[in-house]
């Protein structure tokens, strides 16, 4: 058992200097992968040029960490370096003959990764680092050029020579070593970009060994080939609960980074429903936000976070720290469980009552609407022959009055004297 198994809710933060121009992180420089990732096509040099002016004066790691805490989030993952190769931390590793490509060389100069890690830890939130194996800026990778467009799967330019690749691997390992040495305890390393090279080229096994030796408690995602402590379905809820630990990462709009044109956003209610569904399947939701170029969050994102925060302030116990609930045919929506409690998540408005089956009805002590605390009336039924059974499994029908309906999702808490159902 690890903290991750019941964490349920985390914050993903995609941010780079490109956010100044309202450009998705990294992808515009390769022209995106339309229609899957439609983020425009920006000349490579123009994309990288805004590194020189990055100065996010409104960045406030403390307020972001308090926000995550108030949302009931248990961990966070920040892009320390995305595919564009820009380090959001102070790195001593230089790309070829150039100085290090990092926030330290910007007008801002401060170490964003350090401020983030310290602030999250301060609020009791586990610290995760996203790190891209790909580096479209490093000459030995080799850097992506205009001539390499359009970005085509399987057609990536290979390194110039085995020596160049060795140099890149040394550089990349050294950056990972910096991140896992200079920032105290790191709880998650979230690799990405593995698809462009083979596990052998990445030296994946060696990299995993180094990571685990530097941070023995760390969890590594499945995007470092062979290493996965957890799986990372992207932008969807898996149709079946996955066998091991897993986390769905999801954007609010269509893109990861801040882009003002990215206005087709999920509503707060949809996001809350996704959180309930993920929790009901025993997974975690890593909800993504993209700060703007000044470091603050866009108003449309804040609006959604506010509503999720309101909902979580009343319903957090039905999500965080829970396990997956009943088998899907016992109730017509997600359910979770914590000890002797079962939580029924109503993602559709009930007509007058709801029924749940497969529970030890004689052990049922009370049913409450979680957010209002209101006790709800219920009755139970089992087979006639079970009347003489001291502890039958049966069904419960609960009256749900209009006044307990929450505008986003209503949770019913069923308190049992002991174990509500088998397993
Ligand atoms: C991707 C994308 C990316 C994003 C990530 C998050 O595969 O390359 O931009 O960072 O997944 O899951």
Description:
It is a single chain. With 423 residues, the protein is an alpha/beta fold. It folds into two domains: 3-318, TIM Barrel (Alpha-Beta Barrel); 325-416, Sandwich (Immunoglobulin-like). 22% of the residues lie in helices and 19% in strands. It has eight helices and 15 strands. The chain has helices at residues 44-49, 61-70, 112-122, 162-181, 199-202, 204-214, 268-280, 299-315, and strands at 9-13, 75-81, 126-132, 188-192, 219-220, 247-250, 284-289, 323-324, 335-338, 341-346, 353-360, 364-369, 378-381, 393-399, 410-416. The strands form three sheets. A seven-stranded parallel beta sheet has the order 5-4-3-2-1-7-6. Helix 7 (268-280) links the parallel strand 6 (247-250) and strand 7 (284-289). Helix 7 (268-280) packs across helix 8 (299-315). The protein is elongated. The model has no long low-confidence stretch (mean pLDDT 97). The protein binds alpha-D-glucopyranose.
The string of secondary-structure elements, in order, is EHHEHEHEHHEEHEHEEEEEEEE
Q: Determine Rg (CA atoms, Å).
A: 24 Å
From the N-terminal CA to the C-terminal CA, the straight-line distance is 17 Å
Domain count: the total is: 2
Uncertain runs: none
CATH class of the largest domain: Alpha Beta
> Architecture of the largest domain, according to CATH?
Alpha-Beta Barrel
- What is the overall shape? elongated
Give the ligands present.
Answer: alpha-D-glucopyranose
Instruction: Tally the beta strands.
Output: 15
Percent range of helical residues = 10-25%
Main beta-sheet annotation:
7 strands, parallel
Q: What class would the helix/strand composition place it in?
A: alpha/beta
Strand content: 15-25%
The CATH superfamily title of the largest domain: Glycosidases
